[in-house]
Structure formats: C-alpha cells, structure tokens
tRNA pseudouridine synthase B
Amino acid sequence: MTHKHTAPDGLVIVDKPSGFTSHDVVAKMRGIAKTRRVGHAGTLDPMATGVLVLGVERATKLLGHLALTEKEYVGTIRLGQTTVTDDAEGEITSSTDASGLTRDAVDAGIAKLTGDIMQVPSKVSAVKIDGVRSYKRARDGEDFEIPARPVTVSSFAVHDVRDAVAENGTPVCDLLVSVVCSSGTYIRALARDLGADLGVGGHLTALRRTRVGPYKLDSARTLDQLQQELTVMPVAEAAEAAFPRWDLDARRARLLANGVRLEMPDAYAGAGPVAAFDPQGRFVALVEDQKGKAKSLAVFG
C-alpha cells in the first residue's frame, strides 16, 4: 500500500500580497499543502494586503464561523477624487480641490461614520443582489441599487494628514487611518462616504488588514515563506484562540461527538460559537447554545 500524503488539519494565516485575489491565494495554498480542501475566511480585495485566514482539510469547517469575527485595518484615504471602484483600482470619475479641508471637518465626517452605521457596499464588490455578484452587474453596465446594511465601526482613527497633488494636478488630501469594524464592513465604502460628506469625494488608495478576530499580522506568513515551510495552526489551538472554551468530561465529550445534544451551561448562553474540548484537550466540536442545548455547528471529535 502506498503511503498517501495527508495535509495537516489547521489554519494558515497568510500575509496576502497585493494584486492577488483571495481565490488566487487559495489556489496557491492547494499546491503548497497538496490538498484540494482549502478555503478562506472573509475575502480581501486584490489591492489589499495583510491577514487572510485559510483553512486546510478539516479546519475548513471553522471558516464560516471565523469570517464573522471583528477585523482591523490600516489604510490610506485620498480625499478629492472618486473612482468607479471606490479604490485605486478603478478609473477616476471626479476630481475636486481638497486643499481647503480643515482637520475639524475631517474629524466631524469620521465621527459620523463611527459606531453602528448603515452602509451601502461598493457597487464593485462581491455582494450578491438577486443571486448575481454586484461587480458583475457593474461591469455589465447595469444601473442598480444596493440596499444599505448595518455594520459596526468600533474605531475609526486618523493618524496622519498629508497634502498631495494627484497625477492630474488636483490638490488632494491623504489620510492615514486605522479602522476596527464588524464583518461585512467595506473600508472603501467608508472612504467613499467620508469624501461625499466633505463634498470633495474620496477613495481608498492603500489597505492592509492587520487582524481577523484573534489572528494578527505577527503570526501571518507570506506565500514565499509558506512555500519554504508550511506553518499550520492546529485546529484545536485555532478554535481556542477564536471561541470561548468549554471543557467536558470523557462521557459527555463522547456523547457530543456522537451527536447527542447536551445541556449547555448558562455561562455560554448567547455567547455565539463555543469550542468544546475533552479531558485530553482534544477539540471535539464547535457548538452553539440553542434553548439551553448544545447545537453542533461542526464536529471534530
């Protein structure tokens, strides 16, 4: 019998290069890990760099739950120009002299975009409208509206303001910002809306994701580094970092692994996904409280 290479189960935290789609990175990882079972948690635009969480083998079952966690970014917003895509990838659609903007006006605009807000995603985005991705509708020249949806921007800070001149000679203003936000928040939509509020237009010129849930840039590896040495965070460690931990005795761990709905302690009520472990520290299942019972979201035990 020939020995079959088995890829390790776990998460791979990639520092995505610019110019790659999230799908490109998944395709590369399939080659590196020698398995088809690779997925990603939460896309990152081609222009953007930084933390992209990939799951290999059984860890792919965690991805949908990880995609919903909080994210953190640093980026540059250019005030004074709008683009088709709300970022530097798209052609410029308007230019307005932004040299008269005051810091107070910028801060007031940012305050309006902080907290629980209603956001309309960018037209050139992966949001589906009636089953068709928005960017496809935009490319096909359709005129359409995307409904606003609630997002939470828990922090939106300006670290530097630089006056600049765009290639077409328009005086513009570049803001270096950091954002902490909920899943589904578009940073380029924040740039677009800030520029619109200030009356000069705006778009995103650079973006780097520094955190997805508990996974930060310091644990991320470039594709080149991963090609040299595949660094995988074991499923148990990944789950413990991202979700509350519930320790079970051997009997209950076995029951849970066999699909029995256990009583869930009150401490985890409304906590979202919870990682259940057996006495040996093995990750048995990802569960969620449903009317006091543990509903399995993904079983590993």
Notes: The longest strand covers residues 149-165. The CA atoms of residues 163 and 235 lie 47 Å apart.
